[in-house]
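Support request from a user on the community tier.

User writes: "When I paste my structure tokens into the form, the page sometimes reloads and wipes my input. The last time it worked, I copied everything first. Here is what I submitted, just in case something in the input itself triggers the reload:"
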């Protein structure tokens, strides 16, 4: 097991409905030493890619993205969730269905902060059905920028997102891929990669 898988086994809590709570180290209280290990590992896995900027999505991707950005020495942009429709032409807009809250949000990125030809690394905490990533990919594509890679901390491999994103040909690296998790026993099965 790698460092993140070990931490998931130690502190992750499996909830009904295929939800993993990692509140104590990833997305409520944040263990910055762990985030640094995550940053170092993404830097290693994407060492062949030229990265100009990191793009993530509010809220829980932001902390990880900021620490990862230190290793790439690039700025971070986060897509903001917005309930109001903004069609003034200044924003890239995508619709994203939230896995955890089961509602649709518009996410927006100002056109000032994504430019044609830039190489973008997408970072997020979880990959489940892939809706968040599809939204980010559509924003990058609309900007005429390039998805240079996708770094995910925890992929739930029993949901469709990972397969879909890999089938589209993206360079996706997930640091822990959970193939099974059982709320009754608290047991995890990780994918050997
Ligand atoms: P997707 O869009 O791939 O279905 O879901 C990804 C987003 O939903 C992530 O940004 C993450 O915040 C949230 N998410 C999905 N599954 C889980 C989960 O099991 N636990 C937590 N804490 N967040 C999740």
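"...and here is what came back when it finally went through:"
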């Amino acid at each position: 097991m790698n460092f993140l898988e070990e931490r998931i086994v130690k502190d992750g809590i499996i909830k009904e409905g295929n939800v993993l709570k990692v509140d104590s180290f990833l997305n409520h209280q944040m263990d910055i030493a762990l985030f640094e290990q995550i940053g170092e590992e993404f830097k290693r896995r994407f060492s062949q890619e030229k990265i100009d900027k990191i793009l993530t999505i509010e809220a829980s991707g932001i902390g990880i993205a900021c620490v990862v950005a230190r290793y790439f020495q690039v700025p971070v942009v986060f897509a903001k969730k917005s309930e109001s429709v903004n069609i003034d032409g200044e924003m890239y807009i995508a619709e994203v269905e939230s896995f955890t809250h089961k509602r649709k949000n518009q996410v927006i990125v100002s056109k000032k902060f994504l430019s044609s030809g830039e190489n973008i690394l997408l970072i997020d905490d979880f990959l489940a059905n892939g809706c968040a990533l599809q939204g980010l990919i559509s924003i990058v594509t609309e900007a005429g920028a390039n998805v240079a890679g996708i770094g995910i901390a925890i992929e739930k491999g029993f949901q469709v997102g990972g397969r879909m994103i890999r089938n589209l040909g993206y360079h996706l690296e997930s640091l822990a891929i959970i193939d099974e998790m059982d709320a009754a026993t608290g047991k995890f099965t990780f994918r050997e990669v």
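Agent notes: The reload is a front-end session timeout and is unrelated to the input. The domain at 3-190 is CATH 3.40.50.2020 (Rossmann fold). Residues 26 and 125 are 8 Å apart (CA to CA). Escalated to web team.
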